[in-house]
C-alpha cells in the first residue's frame, strides 16, 4: 500500500505531531508512507517539502493566490487570533501547485493545513481516488473558524461570521464554505471519509451542512505508551529542580496565552483554592508574558522530556473552552496523571468523572477549584486515578490500536474503489 499524507508541516502543534506519529507508525508496519509538507524543519527524507520541486509557473501561481488571500483577509479582517483563534479559509496559496505535484498513491491522508491545501483543485485531482481527512478540529466543516464556540452557522451555510470584524450574509466565511461545498460536490462518499478523533467531533461533522452526507469515522488518537510512561516522581522532580514536598499542578499548551486553552480560567480557579493548600502551578509551552508564582518550563521537545514533566506533577489541568481530544491529555494520562478539565468537546472520551479525573461544567472555575483541591489533598484517590489513566491508555488509546484502525480503513477504501 502506498499512502501519501498531506500536512502543513513536519512538526509544530498537536495536529502536525499527530500526522507525523501516524505516518511513522504506518512505516513501522511496512507501509510505503510519505508526507508532503509546506514547511520542513527536520531532515527525515520521508517528509517531502513541496516547495523544493516547484517550477516557475507554480511560483507565479503561488504568489498570485497568496496576494488574493491576503486581500480577502484585509477586506473582512478576522478578529485578533488571541481572542477567537485562527481563521483558515481552506484556500491554501500552494493549492494548485500541490495538486499538480502529487505522487502516485493508493490512498491520500489529509491533515491540518493553513496555506498548503486548497480543497477545490485538490478534490478535483483526487476525487475519484480513496482519501480520508483526519480532522484536528472543526475547520474542514466551517467557513474559517477552527472551533465554532457555540455558533451553529456551519450547520447551514455560514455567513454573518462572529469571527470577522465585518460580518455579512455573504462574507468570507460564506464564500469559503460554498467553495468547499463545490470541492466535494462530485466526491463519491465511498471514496472519501472524514475521520474524527473524538465522538464530539464526529457529532459536529454529522450535523454540518458540508460533511453530513459523508460517513465520518471515529478513530481515537493513539499515544505511544512506551515513550509516555510513568517515571519515578522523585527522579522526575530532581531533573526539573522541583521539591518532592510540593503539590504540582501541570498545565500545557502550544501557546500558554491561547484564550481557548483557558489559562485565565486556571488562574481564576487557583485564586479560589484555600490558602493552606500550597500549590505549585507549572506551565509548559510558549509564553509571551510570565506571571509571578507560575513555574514556566517553556516548550519541551521530545517524548522523554515531556514524560519527565508529566511524571513530576501530581495532576494535569486542562481548563479548555473547546477542544477535540488533545495529545497532551492522553500523554499525561499515559504517564499516570489524573486530568482535571471541563465537560467540553472530546474530554469525556478519556476523562471519566471520578475515575480518571474530574470534569467541571464549562468555565465553572469554582467547581474546577474544588476538583483540584479534592485530587491534591487525597493521595490514595490520586494514585488510584493515575493507575486507571494508565490502564485506559494501554487498552483503548494506545498507538498500535489506533494505527491498526487507520490501516483497516485504508484497506477497506482501496478495496471498495477497485470494485
From TrEMBL:
GO molecular function (one): glycosyltransferase activity
Top-rank taxon, per record: Bacteria
Keyword Glycosyltransferase carried by entry: yes
Keywords: Glycosyltransferase, Transferase
Entry's EC annotation: 2.4.-.-
Protein name from the UniProt record: Glycosyltransferase
Species the sequence originates in: Sedimentitalea xiamensis
Lineage of producing organism: Bacteria, Pseudomonadati, Pseudomonadota, Alphaproteobacteria, Rhodobacterales
Amino acid at each position: 500500500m502506498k499512502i501519501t499524507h498531506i500536512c502543513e508541516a513536519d512538526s509544530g502543534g498537536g495536529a502536525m505531531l499527530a500526522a507525523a506519529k501516524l505516518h511513522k507508525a504506518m512505516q513501522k508496519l511496512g507501509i510505503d508512507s510519505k508526507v508532503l509538507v509546506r514547511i520542513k524543519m527536520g531532515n527525515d527524507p520521508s517528509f517531502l517539502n513541496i516547495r523544493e520541486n516547484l517550477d516557475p509557473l507554480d511560483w507565479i501561481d503561488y504568489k498570485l493566490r497568496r496576494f488574493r488571500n491576503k486581500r480577502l483577509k484585509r477586506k473582512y479582517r478576522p478578529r485578533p487570533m488571541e481572542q477567537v483563534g485562527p481563521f483558515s479559509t481552506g484556500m491554501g496559496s500552494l493549492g494548485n501547485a500541490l495538486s499538480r505535484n502529487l505522487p502516485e498513491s493508493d490512498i491520500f491522508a489529509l491533515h491540518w493545513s493553513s496555506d498548503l491545501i486548497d480543497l477545490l483543485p485538490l478534490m478535483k485531482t483526487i476525487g475519484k481516488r480513496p482519501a480520508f481527512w483526519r480532522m484536528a478540529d472543526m475547520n474542514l466543516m466551517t467557513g474559517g473558524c477552527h472551533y465554532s464556540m457555540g455558533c451553529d452557522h456551519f450547520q447551514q451555510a455560514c455567513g454573518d461570521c462572529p469571527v470577522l470584524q465585518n460580518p455579512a450574509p455573504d462574507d468570507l466565511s460564506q464564500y469559503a464554505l460554498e467553495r468547499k461545498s463545490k470541492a466535494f460536490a462530485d466526491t463519491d462518499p465511498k471514496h472519501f471519509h472524514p475521520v474524527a478523533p473524538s465522538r464530539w467531533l464526529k457529532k459536529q461533522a454529522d450535523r454540518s451542512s458540508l460533511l453530513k452526507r459523508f460517513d465520518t469515522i471515529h478513530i481515537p488518537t493513539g499515544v505511544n505508551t512506551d515513550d509516555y510512561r510513568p517515571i519515578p516522581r522523585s527522579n522526575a522532580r530532581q531533573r526539573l529542580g522541583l521539591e518532592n514536598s510540593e503539590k504540582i499542578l501541570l498545565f500545557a499548551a502550544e501557546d500558554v496565552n491561547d484564550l481557548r486553552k483557558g489559562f485565565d480560567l486556571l488562574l481564576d480557579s487557583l485564586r479560589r483554592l484555600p490558602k493552606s493548600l500550597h500549590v505549585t502551578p507549572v506551565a509548559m509551552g510558549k509564553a509571551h508574558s510570565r506571571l509571578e508564582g507560575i513555574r514556566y518550563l517553556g516548550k519541551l521537545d521530545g517524548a522523554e522530556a515531556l514524560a519527565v514533566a508529566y511524571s513530576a506533577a501530581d495532576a494535569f489541568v486542562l481548563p479548555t473552552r473547546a477542544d477535540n481530544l488533545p495529545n497532551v491529555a492522553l500523554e499525561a494520562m499515559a504517564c499516570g496523571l489524573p486530568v482535571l478539565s471541563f465537560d467540553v468537546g472530546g474530554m469525556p472520551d478519556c476523562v471519566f468523572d471520578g475515575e480518571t479525573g474530574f470534569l467541571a461544567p464549562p468555565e465553572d472555575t469554582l467547581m474546577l477549584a474544588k476538583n483540584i483541591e479534592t485530587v491534591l489533598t487525597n493521595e490514595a484517590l490520586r494514585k488510584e486515578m493515575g493507575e486507571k489513566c494508565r490502564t485506559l491508555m494501554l487498552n483503548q488509546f494506545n498507538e498500535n490500536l489506533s494505527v491498526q484502525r487507520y490501516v483497516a480503513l485504508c484497506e477497506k477504501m482501496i478495496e471498495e474503489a477497485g470494485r
